[in-house]
C-alpha cells in the first residue's frame, strides 16, 4: 500500500489493489467527498447520480466541478441517470468492470419523507434493489451502502448499538433505510454478495447539504436572518464531521464482510443549545431564534456506539465537533466572500495526526 493522504489523513492502510468503484450519489455531499478520497488514492471511479432537485442542483454540479478541478477533467466517469434504471446499470457494470459498489444515492431527509413517501420508496428501496441485483450478477467484491442512525427510531438506549433490534422506524425515510439493510442481508444470503451497511450519524462539513441544520445554522446566523429551533435546545445529536465519515466508508470498502452493519458516528452527542453557541462563536454573530415544538419523525437524541466499527474496521472519529464547525464556517465564508471573523485559518490541525 502506498501512503496517499486525503485532507491530511492517511487513507491507504489496506489498499493494495486499484479498485474500480461505482459511487452512487457521487454528486451529493457524502458521495462527492468519498469520490474525492478514492480518486486521491488512485482508484478508478464511476459516478452515477440523477442530480435531482431535492436541493439546489447547482450545488451538486459544483461538487462534480470540484472533483474535476482537483483530479482532472477526465479523472472519473460521470453518468447522469436513475439508479432504478436496470438497463443503464447493466451497461455501467459491464462496460466499466465495476468490482466495488459504494452506494450513497438516496432520497435523504426525514421531514420531507413524511410529505412524499413514494419518492423515498423509489430511490431508496427500488434503487437499492436494482443495484444489489446488478452487483450480484457481476459478482462485485464488496457492496457498501449508506444506512442511517434514523433506523434506531425512538430508542431509549444511551449509546445506539448495532446489536439492538431496530424494527420500529418513525419516518418513511427511516423505514426505507431499514429496508435497504434487509435487502442487503437477503442478497448476501442468496448470492454470497458481501454487503456492509453504514449507519451514518448526522454528517456535516464543507459542501454540506443545505437542508440540514449545520449548514442552515451557519447560513442563517451569518446572514443575521431569523432561524427556527425545534424544541427547547436540550435535544442532542451525534454530529459527525465529513472526513470521519469518509474514513469509515473507505475502511469499509477495503474490508469486505459477508454481511455487516456498522455505526459510523462520532460517539458523543452535542445539544442543540451548545451547537448554536459554537456557530455563534465562529461566525461572531448572535442567533435570532424562533423556538418551535419538536417535529414529528424527529428523534430526541442520537449517539453512536462505535465499538464495533473500531474493532472490525479500525474506525475512530477524530475531529472534535467544535473543529468541524470551524472548518464549515471557514468554507462558508470563502464561498460567500465573507471575511473570517472568529474562525481562523491557521490553527487546529492537530487532530489529524491522531488518526492511525
Ligand atoms: P445528498 O442528497 O447530498 O446525496 C444523495 C445523492 O443521490 C444526490 O446527489 C441525489 O441526486 C442522488 N440520488 C437520489 N436518488 C437518486 C436516484 N434514484 N438515482 C440516482 N441518483 C440519485 O445526501 P448525502 O447527505 O450525501 O447522503 C448520502 C447517503 O448517506 C444517503 O444514502 C443518505 O440517506 C445517507 N445518510 C446521510 C446522512 C447525513 O447526515 N448527510 C445521515 C445518515 C445517512
From TrEMBL:
Positions of the NAD(P)-binding domain: 22-327
Top-rank lineage group of the source organism: Eukaryota
Annotated keywords: NAD
UniProt KW NAD keyword: yes
Protein family per UniProt: Belongs to the NAD(P)-dependent epimerase/dehydratase family.
This protein's name: NAD(P)-binding domain-containing protein
Source organism phylogeny: Eukaryota, Sar, Stramenopiles, Ochrophyta, Bolidophyceae
Residues of the full protein shown: 28 to 383 of 422
